[in-house]
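Job type: complex structure
Entries:
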Amino acid sequence: MDVVTINFIDEKPKLNNPIFIEGLPGIGNVGKLAVEHLIEVTKAKKFAELYSKDFPPQVFINPDGTVKLVNNEFYYRKATNKNQPDLILLTGDYQGLSSQGQYELVQSILNVVIELGVKRMYTLGGYGLGHDIKEPKVLFATTHKNLVKPMKEYGAIFRKNEPGGGIIGASGLLLGLGKLQGLEGVCFMGETPGYLVDPNSAKAVLKILMKITKIKVDLSRLEDKAKEIEYIAQQLSEMEGMGKERGDEIQYIG
Amino acid sequence: MDVVTINFIDEKPKLNNPIFIEGLPGIGNVGKLAVEHLIEVTKAKKFAELYSKDFPPQVFINPDGTVKLVNNEFYYRKATNKNQPDLILLTGDYQGLSSQGQYELVQSILNVVIELGVKRMYTLGGYGLGHDIKEPKVLFATTHKNLVKPMKEYGAIFRKNEPGGGIIGASGLLLGLGKLQGLEGVCFMGETPGYLVDPNSAKAVLKILMKITKIKVDLSRLEDKAKEIEYIAQQLSEMEGMGKERGDEIQYIG
Amino acid sequence: MDVVTINFIDEKPKLNNPIFIEGLPGIGNVGKLAVEHLIEVTKAKKFAELYSKDFPPQVFINPDGTVKLVNNEFYYRKATNKNQPDLILLTGDYQGLSSQGQYELVQSILNVVIELGVKRMYTLGGYGLGHDIKEPKVLFATTHKNLVKPMKEYGAIFRKNEPGGGIIGASGLLLGLGKLQGLEGVCFMGETPGYLVDPNSAKAVLKILMKITKIKVDLSRLEDKAKEIEYIAQQLSEMEGMGKERGDEIQYIG
Amino acid sequence: MDVVTINFIDEKPKLNNPIFIEGLPGIGNVGKLAVEHLIEVTKAKKFAELYSKDFPPQVFINPDGTVKLVNNEFYYRKATNKNQPDLILLTGDYQGLSSQGQYELVQSILNVVIELGVKRMYTLGGYGLGHDIKEPKVLFATTHKNLVKPMKEYGAIFRKNEPGGGIIGASGLLLGLGKLQGLEGVCFMGETPGYLVDPNSAKAVLKILMKITKIKVDLSRLEDKAKEIEYIAQQLSEMEGMGKERGDEIQYIG
C-alpha cells in the first residue's frame, strides 16, 4: 500500500493547456471554500479521487447513511469560449498529517497535473491576521519573477516579508516542488481573521481568479455564506459580551 | 520486517460465503467485548495471529507466567444450520498506534478476509455520549445505500450527522477501504457513556447481530459483566459523593 | 541506509550453544548495569556494534576528546569450564526511540544471535515500585511454561498480574518476537524504586544469573556503586529535608 | 520520492583534496553564520541543492516576490595559493525534523563529499552556556585522537565532559557516521549564551578555521552584525528593566 493512491473514475480527461487551481483546508478554509465554490458554479466534473495513509484513518457519514473515506478530489472544467483556459481543480477533506506525507501528497498531485498538460497553477490559501478585516486584500507569491507584475495588475498585492514565515503546507509546497519541475505558479492568500471559515476572503480570492481565467462566477451563494458566518461571529461576540456584563454585575453584587 | 505479519496457525479455513465481524479496542471497548463474547459462546476457532510494528513494543504476562506479544487474532465459526452464515471474527489487544499504521493494518486485514471469500462485513464500536444511558441504542453507517433499510429493520438506527466527526479507527477504515475494493459493510456503534468498558452496550450490538446472522447467542455472561461494571461505577460515584459530603462537612466546620 | 546497521569487528565468534543476555537502558538502568558489570568482570570481548536511525542523532564525547556515535554493542564470553555456557551479551546507550524502531532493532538483534546458535536468552530489566526497597526481589516472566519451575528454584519470583502492564521495550519484545521464532527466554526484572540508577537491584539480578550460568562474578564493584548512589540519594533527601526545615523557620518567622 | 534529493546545478566540481565545512542552523546559529560568512567573503560557488521530505513543507518568500523551497546548499571554493585547501561548504535553512531523517540527511551529505574526494571535515556549531560571555572560547571534539593536539595548537580548547550530553544534530552525526566511513573530522563549538543568533561566537570559530585553512577572511561584516545583535540584546534587557521599574512604581503607588 503506497502513501498515496489515486483512483481515476473514468478515463483521464483530455484538456487543452489546462491551468491547475488548488484549494485545500487551511487558515480560514479560504482556499477550500474558493475551489468548492468554483466547482459548484462551473459544474466542474470529478475525474479522480486521491486517498492517502497520511490522512486520518477516518470516514465521514453522508446524509443518506453511507460512509465516505476522507480524501482529496480532482475536477476538471472545459473552457466555454476561446478566452478561457481549461481548468483542473483540487479540493479535499485534509492535507497530509505529517511533514513527509505532505511532500508525498504534493508530488503525487504534481504528477497528475503534469501528465494532463499543466504548465501554470494557482494555489489558494488564507493569510491569518488575528484581527478583524473589512475588505480583505489578496497577497501573492510566485515561482517566477515575470509573474509579479501581471499579478499586481490583476489586483493582488505584494508586501515585503509577508507572510513572514513563508507559506507552509500544500499551497506553498506545490509552488516549491512544482518550480523544480518546470511549472509556473502563483499562491494567492486572502487576508482573514483566521478564527472561522471565511467565505468573504474566499470571495476576494475568486475575484482575482475570475480576471485571470475570464470565467464569470456567480458569487452570491458565497456572499450568503459570508452573511451566515458574520451572524455566527456576532452571536459569539455578543455571548462573550453578555458574559462580561454578567461578570460585572456579579462584581457589583459582591 | 513488514509493518504487518500474519501467521496462519494451520491451513486457511475453507468457508462458505463467510461474513466478517470486527471488534477491536475502542470507546467503551464495545466492539471488543461483543466479538470476544461471540468467540467464546460460539466456540469459534483461532486460525491466524496478526503482529505489527505499529502496535506497542509490549508483551502481556499470562496468569501462568508466560508472555504474549500483543496482537490481533482471527477466528472462524462454521454455520450449524442453513440459515446461518459462516463467520470470520477479529479482535485483539490494540489498534495501530499511527495513522499510517492503521491504514496498513486495515488493508492487511482486508487482504485476509477477501482471500477467504468475504463480501460482507460488520464492524463494531461504541458511540461515546459522555453521559449515562439506560437503554443504549445502536447507530449504524454503511458502505451502500441499499443496506440502510434492512439495518433499520434489524433495529439499528440512523441519526443524521451522528457521529458528527464520522468514524475514526479500524471500524470506519474497514468500511472506507473495503468499499473501494468492492466489499459491502455496516458499522454498528452502541451508545455508551464511554467512561468504562460497557458490556451493556456490547449486548445491544450483539442483539442486532443475532438477528442478522440467525445465530442464537447466550448473553448471560455479558449481563453478569455489565452488573459488575455497574457495581464498580456505583462505588466510584459513591466515593465521589462521600468526598463531596465530607467536603460539605469541612465547609460547615470551617 | 537501513534502520539498523550491524558492523562486525572481526569475524563472527564461533560459540558452543551460547546463551544470550540483554541489558539495555531502562527503569533504574538495572539491565544495563548488570550486563555492563558482567562484561567487565568476565572480560567479555566486543564483536559487533549496532547503529540505528532510530537512536538519537547524537555522539558522546570520550574523555580523550574523541566522539562515539551512540550505539548498542555485542560481546561474547567463552566458557572456562564444562558447566558454564558460552555467553553473548548486549548492552548500549539507547533503546529505539519509536515503536516501529523497537521492533526493527529487536528483530535485528535476534537475527544476530540466532545465526550464532542461540536457543535460550535472558533479558534483564527493572520493575519500578515507586517506593524504597531494602531487599529487591527479582520477578520473572518467560516464553515457555516449563521454564517457570526452574526459575523459581533459582530464586526468582512470580506474582500474578505483575507487572500489570506487561513488559514494554526490548526486554519484553525479545521474548515476544523470539518466541515466535522458536527461542526460549526469560525476562528478569529487579525490583527498584526507579528514581535513580540502581546497582543494588542489578546485583540481585546478577545473583540469579550466576546460579544459572555457573559463572562466579565478583560483585564488589557493583556494591561500591550501590553505596555511592545510596549516598547521593541520602544527600538529595537531606536537601529536601533542609528545605522543609528552612521552610518551617520562615513560617515561624512569618 | 526519496527522503533526500540532491540537484547538481552544473557538473560536479573537480576539487583537489578538498576539506568539507558544515554550518547548519543550531544553537545561536553559530555554524550557519560562520559558513554563510565564509561563502560570502570567499565568493564560494553554489554547486548543489539538497531538498528533503524531512524538512518542513514550506517555502520562503524572497524580497522580489518569488518563493524558495526550504533546502540545504553546497558551495565550493578553490584554493588561491598552494598553502590553502579547496573547500566544500554546506549551509541551509533547516536540519532534519526527525531523528531518522537526520541520519538520512547526514548520510546523503557524506555521500556527496566523499565522492568529491573529501577526507577531512570541520563541522561548526554553538555551545549554549545559558549566560552571557565576553570572549567566547571554541571547544572541539574529534573523530581521531591524533587530531586533538593540533586543534589545541590552533587555539580550540577541550574540557572533559563538555558538552555533557555530547553533540546532537548534524554536526555530531557527520563526525559519528563519517568516522565509520573512514573520514577524519573535528567539530568546533563556539561558546554562546544561546538566546539570540551570535555572530560574535561565529567570529571566534572562523578565526580558528582561518588558521587551519590559511584563508584570510575579512570579519568586519560579522563584527557589524555582532554589534547589531548586541544593540538588540541591550534594548531587550532595558525593556525588561523598565518593566521592572514601572512595576516598582506601581507598587509604590499601590
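Summary: The two ends of chain D are 65 Å apart (CA to CA). Chain D has six helices and eleven strands.
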